[in-house]
Amino acid sequence: MDYLTLIQLLDSSLRLATPLLLACLAGLFSERAGIFDIGLEGKMLAAAFFSAAVASLTGSVWIGLLAGIGASLALAALHGIASITFRGNQLISGVAINFLAAGMTVLIAQSWFKQGGRTPSLMGGARFEGITLPGADAIADVPFIGPLYSELISGHSILVYMALAAVPLTWWLLYRTRFGLRLRAVGENPASVDTAGVSVVGLRYAAVAICGVLCGIAGAYLSTALQAGFVKDMSAGRGFIALAALIFAKWRPWYALWATLLFGLFGALETRPDVIESIIGMKVQAQFLGALPYIMTVVILAGFVGKAIPPRAGGEPYVKER
Amino acid sequence: MSDETTAKRQATAASTAPAIELKGISKAFGPVQANKDISIRVMPGTIHGIIGENGAGKSTLMSILYGFYKADKGEVWINGSKTEIPDSQAAIAAGIGMVFQHFKLVENFTVLENIILGAEDGRLLKPSLAKARRSLVELANDYGLNVDPDALIQDIGVGMQQRVEILKALYRQADILILDEPTGVLTPAEADQLFRILDRLKSEGKTIILITHKLREIMETTDTVSVMRRGEMTATVKTADTSPAELAELMVGRKVLLRVDKNPPTLGDVVLDVKGLKVVDDKGVERLRGIDLQVRAGEILGIAGVAGNGQSELLEVLGGYADGTGEVRLNGAPLDLTGRLSDGQSRRRRGIAHVPEDRQREGLIMEYQAWENTAFGYHHDPEYRAGVLMNNAAIRDDTAEKMERFDVRPPNPKLAAKNFSGGNQQKIVLAREIERNPDLLLIGQPTRGVDIGAIEFIHQQIVALRDQGKAILLVSVELEEILALSDRIAVMFDGQVMGERLPDQTDEKELGLLMAGITDTDAAAAAKGT
Amino acid sequence: MDVMPKWAEVVLVPLISLLLAGIISALVVLAIGEDPVAAAKLMVTGALGSTYGWGYTLYYATNFMFTGLAVAIAFHARLFNIGGEGQAMLGGLGVALACLYIPWPHWSLALVGAAVMAGLFGAVWAAIPAWLQAKRGSHIVITTIMFNFIAAALLNYTLVNMLRPKGSMDPATARFPEATNLPTLHDLLSPLGIEFSKAAPANVSLLLAIAACIGLWVLIWRTRLGYEIRAYGHSESAAKYAGISPFKITMIAMIISGALAGLMATNNVMGEAERLVLNSTEGAGFIGIAVALMGRSHPLGVFIAAILFGFLYQGGAELALWTSIPRELIVVIQALVILFTGALDNMVRMPLEKLFLALRRARTSKEAGAAD
Predict the structure, then answer these.
(1) What CA–CA distance (Å, rounded) separates B492 from B288?
(2) Using a CB-CB distance cutoff of 8 angstroms, which residues of chain B are in contact with residue C222?
(3) Coiled coil where (chain B) (predicted)?
(4) Rounded distance, CA C196 to CA C58, Å?
(5) What is the pLDDT of residues B218-251, one digit of tens each?
């Protein structure tokens, strides 16, 4: 494999990793506060539809982005109400939200666009185009650094850069602010926060809201940057892969970056069976490549991180001790 | 200490207003009246005890004071002025600090992080942590509460953790400290240390409320004491004017036997023989470091010790749901200690019955009805079967009979276990295990959370079984219970047996020394020396 | 203290949850510009108005009984098996192998053989995530979801590369031999003089499903294994105390669960399609979750809920045919049922408890007043 192919592969990996990274960080906030969220998939899907739909109708991708975030927040609020206020089973709530999104997106798409459950293809201002960073064209031909800068680092849509920036921002929020301290505490021992006079409910809703926003951006990215429009079930299990990455990353922001980049790499390899063939010398079936991210998720859950310790109060509704 | 606080203290000392006054507090949870018209006065600079059985309403009352619950009726007055406490923040602002029975600490945070949680100074952490560090040094000097600010909670001992809880309250400028059952997890020596700290706090003008069920602590530490029973305040007296017997009677409403009548034991052969038993937990820590002990037929061996020194692991290994190494023989034949799948069934077949320490988490399935719980652990028994299926009718009949013999109330086999009181739940478990006619009965914390009337009954049942020639291994954190019931006492500390004593040749002080890790000979010497 | 009487807990709460789901679904239908009442009428006539409708309703219900029972038994062990879809797919593979490669003389023997294979394949597909959960702590929810995706890929590969007859472009197997064709309800009922639609696919596997409901009820409440599964489901710590092995229960509960999901293939693959095609399960595995939740994991409840969802499914198909409402409406309804019966059940339960408490207080004070 030559250098240019490597760069292309990494470039592709970054593009594919972006929605995973955003969803992973979304799950990180939620789970660190003690709310399990397997509805990342549904929120992404809903956001993907609404951002594409509104972008298509208004011609502005930024308004579309807002709409997508709004849709994701609505589902996040539902999950919050079920899990926090009504102390329901968080796993069931997540599953329900996934189905709700899967069904509603097609219903509404059909109702609005009558194209069999998809939006029309997005063009021009209704899409996030790649941004060429300053100097990218100038040094494109410089050996080694040129392609690295102009292909791999430059040329991505703004959401990719936002996702990358979200990593240190998440780290800072969690470990350097009062809010982060309280958020981490509420996921380990909510009673510690409650007896200190801070609202457990408020913190958890805040975490769920942040999760909703990040999932919204992830979903919007799928339909307005990575692809050009919404199609049925386009999230394709990414929400669950993001969860696996989260566990792999032991619920830490910087590890989440590397974990999602790894999964992005798998996705990139899926489109380049020739690369795999050249590395391992064997032809690999298309179905296997398609299933690779899911198989890797299982392997990761089974192998290296079988005993990763989640936030201690995760998944448990908080009831005051009597 | 700041000038403001000094002035406040002097003002408080000068005034005669009570630090806390509750007037007619009532609180109901659904059909249960937890607090009924409670009125109480605690003067500043005193230690006031509140004593009562489980379910008497003590914790509810304190929760109201701390803003966890809102009283249905009544008023709270702090330092002579009426105060509304709608939430914990208001309580903290009113100068109330609470140290809970189960610590409210975040295990993987540092001491410092736990102390500032909720009382941070501003949005960014770094300045808050720095300020707290300085305060901690001051507090350590003023009250002798030394801790390592950067240690993780999960790495420090229970006594230290309690100090962190106290420091949390003091950091928030609490003048009133409420401690809920503080000595449950402490050795007698650690408990003494705690009371010394409380005395010092008292001398600095703090008001302390001590909630406990231990009569001895009340007598030794408090200035005044209130007794609660069934949601009501039955009496408030000066500690100097009362006695343990009187307090016990006030707690229960009748004269209470604080002793158990029993004959001397008739000893038979060795039933349980443990040699070199070691248990390592899943973090690689040795919980049992080579235990040797024996229990004979017709004997009650009492294992004394503060919770967490290996007693639970001992019961788990003998009960068949933890692995260990070493040699354990029952009636001469070895027991398997390394069952890869749970071996509780084979233990039962060998004639070992087990009343576990935690009846709600282990001994019973709370959602199962009483009859289903009677078969729990014995569900493979041929008498409970009709061919391939379970004979539910037979189990129900058996349960009804057991309930009658053990005076379980209400005697309804179809009632779910969670609807029985603690004492009746324990009786269901006891009936199940004792009526198996085991060769060896393991019992852990038999009267925890059980009302005094049931305690007498349970103690009688244990002694009756022993008189039938069975071997009994009793684990309890209540020294009084150990001394009352045991024919022989072994004290455990840090996974080892520190020494064995006969109950009439020792006392709580010597046992306390052994429980704290003082070696056998040193403890004996120290006990004789005094 | 049990505040609500048992009948309220078992019947009233799910009923109200269902009502809420129904109301919101009606609002959704309104929002996309259709008439909910007309839609409901169409669904009822389409699903229950003729033996043809009933035939389809019962056919779908058979699927959901199997997948609902699968989720239910796992729930009793506190395991959330979302992999019913994949397990049913693997069951289909088992049925295909049994029917295509073994020369059965009669359909009854073929049914037994196919059922065994279907159950086996489904069980194996569930056993792997079960083992991972029991031994490695891998969360069974995520692994079973992953296994659904992997199953789809696996089925795709085997159909395209291994089981497809030569010269066919369809990713599907050949038709099963006639000896393996199962009699439909029409075939079963006409000797008894009962008229039943010939075109409807409900078949003898319905009886198998009903037998499974009864069998599971006996298992859960009358056998020692069921006792152990429920005990473990309530409290793992207590189960260990009693000598019940968490590993054993996890594996057995999931194996039974997977087998039940796999058995669904006797209905859709063997009974209806009579060959194995891609995506033969069509989401039945997921509907099983809604069915189990609505039926409170009780086989009788699952039976009733399965018929209800069969009605919804067939009704939904009619709607899709005659109106502009897509089939995805059923997915939405399914989601709402799961939401209200599973996650928001406290939203229904808490006000009901308050109501019963107030009624009880009123009654006791009235009795006290009357006693004066």
Answers:
(1) 10
(2) 389-390, 392
(3) none
(4) 12
(5) 888 899 999 988 788 888 899 888 887 787 777 7
Residue in B323, B342, B396 to test binding to C, most C beta-carbons within 10 Å? B342
Chains that touch B (3 or more CB pairs under 8 A): A, C
Q: Domain boundary residue among B251, B284, B319?
A: B251
Nearest to B68 among A175, A196, A320 (CB): A320
CATH no. for residue B41? 3.40.50.300
User: Using the 8-state DSSP alphabet, how is residue C362 labeled?
Assistant: H
One domain, residues B345 and B481: yes
pLDDT, tens digit (0-9, with 9 covering 90-100), for B422-479: 889 999 999 999 999 999 999 999 988 787 778 888 999 999 999 999 999 999 988 8
Does the CA dihedral C192-C194-C195-C199 come out positive or negative? Answer: negative
User: Residue B20 in 3-state DSSP?
Assistant: strand
Residues B102 and C174: their CA atoms lie apart, in Å, by: 66
Residue type, A298: V
Domain tally for chain B?
Answer: 3
Q: Who among B362, B368, B389 is closest to C223 (CB)?
A: B389
* CA C24 from centre of chain: 23
**pLDDT at position B258 over 60:** no
B385 lies in some domain = no
Q: What single DSSP character describes residue B380?
A: T
Q: In Å, how far is C219's CA from the nearest CA of chain B?
A: 9
What B84-87 contacts at long range (C-beta under 8 Å, 24+ apart), as own/partner pairs, is B87/A197
- Are B469 and B441 in the same domain? yes
Q: Which residues of A touch B116 (CB under 8 A)?
A: 181
Number of Cβ within 10 Å of residue C46's Cβ equals: 22
**CA dist., res. C296 & res. C301, Å (int):** 6
Query: Which of B202, B224, B251 is the last residue in one of the domains?
Result: B251
Token pair recorded at residue A260? 């999602």
Q: Chain C: nearest CA to B280, how far in angstroms?
A: 18
Helices (H), A189-318: 190-194, 200-221, 238-248, 253-270, 273-280, 286-302
The B-side interface with C (CB below 8 A) comprises 30-32, 319-321, 341-348, 354, 356, 358, 361-368, 372, 375-377, 379-380, 385, 388-390, 392, 416, 419
> Which strands make up the sheet holding B20-29, listed edge to edge?
B32-42, B20-29, B73-78, B81-82
Residue to substitute from C78, C225, C241, interface B, most B β-carbons within 10 A: C241
- List phi, psi (to 5°) of C193: 80, 10
Q: Are residues B27 and B161 in the same domain?
A: no
Task: Give the side-chain half-sphere CA count within 13 A for A222.
Answer: 32
Residues B127 and B222 in one domain: no
Is residue B49, in this structure, part of any structural domain at all?
Answer: yes
Contacts of B248 (CB under 8 A, 6+ apart): B215, B256, B258, B452
B146 touching A (Cβ < 8 Å): no
pLDDT tens string B140-162: 888 888 889 999 998 888 888 99
Predicted confidence at residue B9, as pLDDT, reads 56
Q: Residue B208 and residue B201: Cα distance in Å, rounded? A: 8
B435: left (phi over 0), alpha (psi -120 to 50) or beta: alpha
| Neighbour order of strands in the sheet with B286-296 | B286-296, B270-280, B325-330, B333-334
Residues B496/B311, Cβ–Cβ less than 8 Å: no
- So what's the pLDDT on residue A284? 76
Average pLDDT over residues B250-259: 62
**DSSP for A60-71?**
-HHHHHHHHHHH
Which range marks the domain in which residue B146 is found? 105-172
Query: What is the number of other CB atoms lying within 10 angstroms of the CB of residue B435?
Result: 17
Question: In the CATH scheme, what architecture does the domain A3-126+145-302 have?
Answer: Orthogonal Bundle (1.10)
